[in-house]
Design a protein that fits this description.
- The structure is a single chain.
- By secondary structure, the protein is of the alpha/beta class.
- The chain contains twelve helices and eight strands.
- An eight-stranded parallel beta sheet has the order 7-6-5-4-3-2-1-8.
- Strand 6, helix 7 and strand 7 form a beta-alpha-beta unit.
- The protein starts with a helix and ends in a 5-residue tail after the last helix.
Length: 301
């Protein structure tokens, strides 16, 4: 899929499925496939294999490729597959090339291992990943990667396949500046979470990455639809009923953005399993809170 073809597929909710592990922390590919078989039945605009929620940084390159292959095979062309890549320049380039050969439709570049890198070095990291394949490149601006509008413009010129930007900090002020500077050169994605849908959609974004979709894809799609049609009362109700408490729990401990979603999947009868260290698993005393969240999602399960 060319970058422009991929771009035309965007609009709505992008799912970030978890990478399930068995109790011994080995890869649960069969469970991952079962999860995807249910996920692709819904009208999602894309799925990300081995993204942040998919614990990319806990995977070996061989496991990463296995996850991407499974996602491509189970999507059966119904939903575009975006492969997450990262670590360092060499590994990210290798992952991108292997993902292309496996049939991925686009590449999502996560930050490299070196925090607070120099602007020129960081630009070269993303440029090299974009050059590695003809697929559309998406940059995930998260953690310490919080660039200026001028830097994003430089990258867009240096990486012709750069097709979309996934903002992962919820910094609407900075995001509006970047969007204004680059206009329609890039496709703009709200990437900080379901709880940021009201803010993102208020500034014109119409695609967001959803963690909720891993458990309740119908709810994620409804969040998009209600926000897109400007139903502020309906959106407020959904946020209060289904979203705010989830993100309050997710922010309780570092790593809970993944751990909480995996435990919700376990409770819902899906394949989640534990997280790999250094991420912490959910504490047993917090399970009742998760059950209450799941109960609030019942109409969409």
């Amino acid at each position: 899929m060319s970058p422009n073809e991929f771009r035309k597929k965007l609009g709505g909710a992008i799912a970030f499925p978890v990478t399930p592990f068995k109790t011994d922390l080995s890869l649960d590919v069969a469970g991952f496939r079962r999860n995807l078989q249910g996920l692709v039945k819904h009208k999602l605009c894309a799925i990300v294999a081995a993204g942040g929620t998919g614990e990319l940084y806990s995977l070996t390159p061989a496991e990463h490729l296995e996850v991407v292959k499974a996602a491509v095979e189970e999507s059966k062309g119904k939903v575009p597959v975006i492969a997450g890549v990262g670590f360092n320049r060499a590994i990210a380039v290798e992952m991108a090339r292997h993902s292309e050969k496996a049939g991925a439709d686009a590449i999502l570049a996560l930050p490299p291992y070196y925090p607070n890198a120099d602007d020129d070095g960081l630009l070269e990291y993303y440029r090299a990943i974009g050059e590695a394949t003809p697929l559309g490149l998406l940059v995930y601006s998260r953690d310490w990667v919080h660039p200026s509008a001028a830097w994003v413009e430089r990258l867009a010129k240096a990486a012709p396949t750069l097709v979309a930007w996934k903002e992962g900090q919820g910094d609407l002020r900075r995001y509006q500046q970047i969007m204004q500077r680059l206009g329609d050169r890039l496709y703009w994605i709200g990437g900080a979470g379901d709880d940021c849908v009201p803010g993102y959609y208020a500034i014109g974004i119409r695609t967001y990455t959803s963690s909720i979709s891993t458990v309740a894809p119908r709810l994620a799609i409804e969040l998009h639809e209600v926000a897109a049609r400007g139903d502020s009362a309906g959106l407020k109700k959904l946020m209060e009923q289904c979203v705010v408490s989830l993100y309050g729990l997710r922010s309780r401990r570092k790593g809970y953005e993944v751990s909480v979603m995996k435990e919700l999947m376990n409770l819902a009868g899906l394949a989640g399993g534990p997280v790999r260290p250094p991420l912490p698993n959910v504490r047993p005393e917090e399970i009742p809170e998760l059950k209450a969240i799941l109960e609030s999602w019942k109409p969409w399960l």
